[in-house]
Write a structure and sequence with these properties.
By secondary structure, the protein is α+β, with helices and mostly antiparallel strands. It contains twelve helices and ten strands. The relative contact order is 0.15.
Length: about 270
């Protein structure tokens, strides 16, 4: 079992929050891809990513997912091997030329937005011999995608996201709208247009993602994480895990025990 984390190159600050390389073996089954406050790009190094949906299972050569409040269910044959790139919502415009709202709730083939460059990236990752080599490939490939003058999101939306992040998702929509001088309705419309989710959902995702990162740390206690992240109690966090992730924190952590042993990127 391997799990390796790495930061992206400084040139990608504000766009890429980190890389994960993984190779996990076990019995065949399904894996719950939890909702996050990031956009997620995954490139498998063995086989395909088989996403279970309402219409059956679809095999992807790679996946790009926007913000969503439901888990992505992945079917596997016992081997999960690939790299994951965590992207900020701003990266959608800078790297892909579209607002994050156009990716919300969806799982796409990266070729839908990158064209042939998606296959080129996958090929380079497949031929790179080590995890550091693969992370260097990602640095170079993503830096090459950065657009000189991407269309800027509305500055108020950026400010709103920053305030939600600063408070760990524990700022009410009413208070946020008051800080911006907008009505709640106007804030929700502008936010949804840019990110694809309303501010209340964004706050929920920010808080949940922070809880997940803290739970991965060695010696983390769910009750302490719940209190630190603003949940009423451990039972509240457990209900949120089921509502957003379709699983329990214990089951989720058991899928990636090496993550807890090695720690994770700072929350």
């Amino acid at each position: 079992m391997e799990y390796v984390r790495s930061r992206a190159a400084p040139a990608l600050d504000g766009l890429v929050t980190g890389y994960s390389g993984y190779r996990l073996t076990g019995p065949p089954g399904t894996h719950q891809g939890l909702p996050s406050d990031r956009l997620i790009l995954v490139v498998p190094l063995t086989g395909t990513l088989d996403i279970v949906g309402r219409d059956g299972t679809r095999a992807f050569p790679a996946t790009l997912g926007g913000l969503h409040d439901r888990p992505v269910v992945i079917s596997h044959d016992g081997l999960q091997h690939g790299v994951q790139i965590d992207l900020t919502w701003r990266a959608a415009r800078t790297l892909f030329g579209l607002p994050a709202g156009e990716l919300a709730g969806a799982v796409l083939d990266p070729a839908d937005v990158l064209g042939p460059r998606a296959a080129e990236l996958a090929e380079r990752l497949h031929t790179a011999p080590t995890w550091p080599d693969r992370f260097q490939v990602l640095d170079a490939a993503l830096a090459a995608l950065v657009r000189d003058r991407p269309a800027a999101p509305p500055p108020e939306v950026g400010r709103a996201w920053r305030r939600l992040a600063e408070t760990g998702g524990n700022l009410t929509v009413a208070d946020l709208a008051g800080e911006l001088g907008w009505s709640r309705r106007h804030l929700t419309e502008r936010f949804r247009r840019e990110l694809g989710v309303p501010p209340k959902t964004a706050a929920r995702l920010i808080r949940f993602a922070r809880a997940c990162r803290l739970l991965r740390r060695p010696g983390a206690r769910p009750a302490d994480v719940a209190a630190r992240c603003g949940y009423f109690d451990q039972a509240h966090l457990a209900r949120e895990f089921r509502a957003l992730g379709g699983t329990t924190a214990t089951r989720w952590l058991a899928e990636f025990p090496s993550v807890q042993a090695r720690g994770a990127a700072p929350a």
